[in-house]
Amino acid sequence: MTMDFSLSPEQTALRAKIIAFARDQIGGKAAEHDRDETFDEDGWRACAEFGITGWPIPQEYGGSGFDPLTTVIACEALGYGCADNGLVFVIENHLWACVIHLLKHGSEEQKARFLPGLADGSLIGAHALTEPEAGSDVLSLQTTAERRGDNWVIDGTKCYISNGTIADLYVVFARTGEGQRGLTAFLVPADTPGLRVVRQISKISVRGTPMGELRFDGCEVPAANVLGKEGGGYHLFTSTIEWERGFMAATQVGRMQRLLETCVAHVSRRKQFGAPLGSFQAVSHRLADMRVNLELARLMLYKIGWLKQQGRMALLESAIVKLFTSESLLDSALAAVRVHGARGIVADLPIERELRDTLGCVVYGGTSDIQRNVIAGLTGVAGAI
């Protein structure tokens, strides 16, 4: 048995192309969009034209048809090259909280209807699961869907929805019965009567990704918009969450490398007490820890890409990489603040924004404590959930 950790020539060239694009054409107004809590529409269009919005979508639907491992490598390069973490997170939600659901569970008619627009970026996707009283506890959802003839009528409130105010298509989870078999997923276009955006929610992290609250009031969708099977929403959620958790970690790994390189450059040129900052052990050890976490996170990330490329489950691995990468990125951002001193907390310099943008990583896709529960349960710990 042989193991090869090197990228193929095609993957190496793709990575370099993505980094060059991200540095040159997007992210230049990251501070402005962060300050104003606005979505970078020009950046989105540039990403769509470059093909990012359709990376994992098959070519027959207008996408790039990247295999899972190549997609991981591409997303890592995007996170490394783009300074606007808010724009990157919009793309992540589009791909891993909407597109992947259609790819894995959509009918041929649904794929033909929605995937071309999602691939070319004319449609923005979002995932409407969380409610005021239900987040990690999926089975506590209170939004309902009632069958009326050939249609379903949805009533309820969804909150903390990333891409919520800008999305054109939502994957909506609603209760259609009792227990695990009482959840159903629906494809709901944003212009469906009875669906409205109640408000945009201000937040501390990834402020360039609009977060919204949605209200469904007699929102009627055709039965053809049921995603998967009636009552199959819980299975759909659990079978796609490993993609969201595992593949969203890719851009975080890219950010870890960007932070490390920024810190190395700073401590190499900044002098105190007549010597470069990096010559002080207290400083160099922080950077050593950043490097260790980066390498370990990347190895686990690529393993997930390989597992999904082989068509295998990665529920445990995705929880591990979600936990380790998000916590490691937070540690790296805190280390970057310490290394930069006063420059690390000044609002018009990027390190402060990097730290704030990292805070959300330990929450979305399931908090770190939820990941520990998943890991413990899959390790065989009795009573763990």
Q: What is the CATH class designation of the largest domain?
A: Mainly Alpha
Shape: globular
Q: State the CATH superfamily name of the largest domain.
A: Butyryl-CoA Dehydrogenase, subunit A, domain 3
- The CATH architecture of the largest domain would be Up-down Bundle
CATH domain topology of the largest domain: Butyryl-CoA Dehydrogenase, subunit A, domain 3
Number of strands: 10
Structural class comes to: alpha+beta
Unreliable stretches (pLDDT < 50, length at least 5) are none
- The succession of helices and strands, N to C, reads HHHHHHEEEEEEEEHEEHHHH
Mean pLDDT: 95
Helix content: 40-55%
Tally of structural domains: 3
What's the Cα radius of gyration? 21 Å
> Taking strands numbered 1, 2, ... along the chain, how are they ordered across the largest sheet?
1-4-5-8
State the end-to-end distance.
36 Å
Please describe the biggest sheet, giving its number of strands, its sense, and whether it closes into a barrel: 4 strands, mixed
**Beta content:** 15-25%
Counted by DSSP, the helix tally is 11
Protein name: L-prolyl-[peptidyl carrier protein] dehydrogenase
Pfam families: Acyl-CoA_dh_1 (PF00441), Acyl-CoA_dh_M (PF02770), Acyl-CoA_dh_N (PF02771)
GO molecular function, one term: acyl-CoA dehydrogenase activity
Family: Belongs to the acyl-CoA dehydrogenase family.
